Request: fold
Amino acid sequence: MSAYEALAFSYDGLTQDIAYEETLNFVESVLQRLGKSPKTVLDLACGTGSLSVLLARKGYAVLGVDLSEDMLTVAYDKALELEGERPLFICQPMQELELPQPVELAVCCLDSLNYVTDPADVRETFRRVYDHLTPGGVFLFDINSAHKLRGLDGQVFLDENDDSYCVWRAEFDEGENLCYYGIDLFQRDGDVWRRSFEEHAEYAYTTEELTQWLLEAGFDLVLPMGDRRLTPPRPEEQRIYFAAVKEEP
Reply:
């Protein structure tokens, strides 16, 4: 089963610990540091739309893009609760990004970029994001660090709630530079539990190569940062943020 086909409808219940509001606060602190006040935002790999909805509630005009139709179905239903302008959701892979209009800010959170497991596709993603940003626009994203992904090798994790039970096992392949997650998901359906299996993979990108690719895409300024900190990442950082700025004419 493809990634997030079954997991999409249990994702929010199993990830209640994700601090979306703290992520948004950090995004805005980076923007303040850069002296930017964008109004239009691309939420790239928006998933079930939790961050998209928060952005919309704060007054941003939001475009949400994701590869998974199932995740976008959840996002669309979630956005129906908004009283103001709702996000526009588009289904497409990020390396084929095509937007109806340019945006002033692009965000790609929760290590979504690691899921693009071909480096050539990441470089193409950077080029397309650059092309769809207005002059002076900002691209802000995070990754799971290579240090973290290698450290997950052999570990087993459990997430559960009243309607879902999820066990996932991590294995790092040094030859492929990939961390594989085998995910067994049990979902309640009335009086029975239905089992499904998904395999996810994340590529272990380095700070140096991502910085170089961003510069090659045309970005004028690239700032690697620690996990929700406005300072450079430490050697054993688990999550690394990047802010890249498109030069103004």
Observations:
- The chain is about 25% helix and 35% strand.
- Residues 7-145+205-245 form a domain with the Rossmann fold fold (CATH 3.40.50.150).
